[in-house]
Amino acid sequence: MKTASIIALTLWTLLVAATRGQAQANADCLTCHAEAGMQDAAGHSISVDEHKFGDSIHGSLKCADCHATIKEYPHPDKVTPVKCDTCHTDEAAGLAGSVHAARADHPCTSCHGDAHSIFPKGDARSAVYPLNIPRTCGNCHGNEGMAKKHGLPSVYPLYIDSIHGFALSKEGLLVAASCTSCHGSHHILSRNDPQSPTYKANIPKTCGNCHAGIDADYEGGVHGMAVARGNLKAPVCTDCHTAHAILQPTASAFRMQSTPICGSCHQDKLSTYRDTFHSQLGSLGGYVQTARCWDCHEAHQILPASNPRSPINKANLVKTCSACHAGANASFVQYQPHANARNRKLNPALYFIRMFMNLLLAGTLTFFVIHTILWLIRSRYDQIKKKSAEGGSHA
Amino acid sequence: MPDLEQAADETREQTHAGERYFMRFTRAQRYLHAVLFTTFLGLAATGLPMRFSESAWARRFASGVGGFGAIIFFHKLCAVVLTLAFAVHVKDILTRGLVHREKGVFWGATSMVGNWKDVKDLFGHLRWFVGLGKKPKFERYAYWEKFDYWAVFWGMIVIGFSGYAMWFAPFFARFLPGWALNAVLVIHSEEGLLAILFIFSIHFVNTHLRPGSFPMDMVIFTGVESEEEFKNKRPEEYKRVASEGKLETRIAEKPAIWLVNFSRVVGSLAILIGLVLLVLTLSAYIRE
Predict the structure, then answer these.
(1) What's this model's pTM, rounded to 2 decimal places?
(2) Can you give the residue range of the structural domain that contains A60?
(3) Is the ipTM of this complex over 0.95?
């Protein structure tokens, strides 16, 4: 009993001593480091705001917990940098294999901000709070010089004007996709790495984390199935929507830019589409909608005409065309949106009509151009030689 | 002030001693031409950007006026006005010819319908161009004017029908086969292109820009022509009217200065717009 008491007393004394000793240590450090604007020899701030630090996620820690090499005062001028990975092992491991692995260029603080005022990511004061992430990443990835030096696209301006950027910065939507939603945070990989969420084959799943319905449609369409089979020539979300500068799909600018994107693979279809009124009007921009590729083919669940569920299946054409053309009937949908007037075998009627019209045009103009040139020469000749102006007061 | 009175007399004398003027086109005919060329310019200016929608100028023009919504609106507006003008003209012709039994509407010297003299005039004119004969003596409407007229007439029907077929495609599909909906665009754009190229090059030069009329023939604007010009350009008509003893009834006032100047401005503007459109069309056509 006596022994137990002694042990308990010793432990208590040790505990109190330890606690008091540490408490004294923080206060000791702040005797100097509380001074605002305090800098080391290299010009880095070594000033600590006691209250901010107290509020921060590390507020319960003692200086020496991180600055482990400092045991006594005075400490040397040069101190070993703090090793966050002592505690944050998973994050450190993730970072080690990532594009930001070079620690000297990408210290933890480059994203998490001032080491003494790090807040949890759910706190609006945090540099990695969802609404602050684009600005945090944009410090480097919105910087032209930086982008050039490292061959990075300067994506911040693209993102911030996008539908995601707008939702985040203007609407303040926490669910709006920010950088980390697609790229992850610590273990960010190059899009060429098959493990990366931004690797082409993984993009539908990445976007599908939020856009689950669209992803399901896409996976059921020809493009989704092709990608699932390993055909990486087939487009994924970003091929049509772009990765960062994603526009509202109903916006005129998006409708203007997307048809050529489909046409970059479907060249023959684009060229025949170009001949139609749909395209002629569509190319001019403005506020009226004309049919673009996906208005007839669907945007995500694109199916071949042979599929009964396809909007361009014969059975569905009247319904599809009626979306714009009220009153479309069975004869109306015989219209060929990709007719080729230059192809005699595919569209003989159109071919001969076009040929006739061209001959009429060429014939009429040829005759009259010759006729008019001869006339011009002759009447100018008369005008000079015979001073005949046909009585007009014009010449 | 005898000097001033004398001066006034001289001026008056000059005016009176000046040429006589003859009426060639009625007010209705001049208005018809004015409606025709304004709507035609409107149709061409809005139709060409659609036809050559891939070219940079078309897109710049379209975005300048509010995109294709604005373009198609003005195209349809001009089309409706021109259709009405065409209907009024056809009704006028039919009333004059069938109801009032007016002579010379469907046949004869004053008719727009072609005749044997037009064929002879065409070949005679061609021979004169190369110095193989005398210049033919033209009647009220020369063969190239009749061609202009019938080209527009045919164009109105062909371009008009194909245009309305596109505008009201579901309605036309009730009695047209599906491939016709493809054909109407080809027909509309090719025939429209022909009309534009023809009017802005051949009609402009033949009627307005050739020596003897340069820079424009004012008669379609003022309605009247000086006696000398009338005699020179339409010797047969002058002769016929004189032999009928109706020359006096055709005498008109010298056109007012304001009308001449106004017509010059409007006409020059029309020709200028036409020539700009012609250059744009040719440049886009060659690049295509």
Answers:
(1) 0.78
(2) 2-82
(3) no
